[in-house]
Amino acid sequence: MIRFEIHGENLTITDAIRNYIEEKIGKLERYFNNVPNATAHVKVKTYQNSATKIEVTIPLKNVTLRAEERHDDLYAGIDLINSKLERQVRKYKTRVNRKNRKNDEQEAFASLPEEQEAENLQNDDNDSEIEIIRSKNFSLKPMDSEEAVLQMDLLGHDFFIFTDRETDGTSIVYKRKDGKYGLIETTE
Fold it and tell me: What GO cellular component entries does it have (predicted)?
């Protein structure tokens, strides 16, 4: 059973909005044999130009489903989010079930109706094979996060991995969609 934590920013979450989100996102349960006890974290934010941003994160046992969408119409945005999440589940489901079939394990995800399954497999086959086309090897240089951001910008990359001088742990700086920077720190 998927539980919902729905938060609104600059917007009051009405019963109609809550019901629509629960109805749409709740349909993901049909993809699972054993419906997981999961909590869907939903953030709905409105901006001054009346655009809305919807973020949905569903942490499951082996995978985290996440989708984000900006749209002028809240309900259309929720529909787009649902489509993105369904695509993620189908893609993951195909990979997991293939792996489990090879190991003779029970399938973790429920089967879809025959024709829809065949269509989904055709769509997913195009991008289901993970192919690493390039591999790099480099040593991590001790530095602070500001120096790592400068190095990342100099290289023209979207992320940069480094050894944090203060914690001696591996960290990653990355450029966010809004043009600002993020930092991921690892723990032992």
Answer: cytosolic small ribosomal subunit
Structure tokens at 162: 């480094």
Q: Is the pTM of this model over 0.90?
A: no
Instruction: Check residue 86 and report its DSSP letter.
Output: H
DSSP assignment letter at 31? G
Contacts of 163 (CB under 8 A, 6+ apart): 140, 141, 142, 143, 169, 170, 171
CA atoms of 139 and 144, how far apart (whole Å): 16
Q: Which residues contact 169 (CB under 8 A, 6 or more apart)?
A: 163, 185, 186, 187, 188
| Residues in contact with 87: Cβ distance below 8 Å, sequence separation at least 6, in sequence order | none
Given a contact cutoff of 8 angstroms between Cβ atoms, the answer to whether 54 and 33 are in contact is no
- Cα→Cα distances 136→80, 133, 139, 186, Å: 36, 10, 10, 21
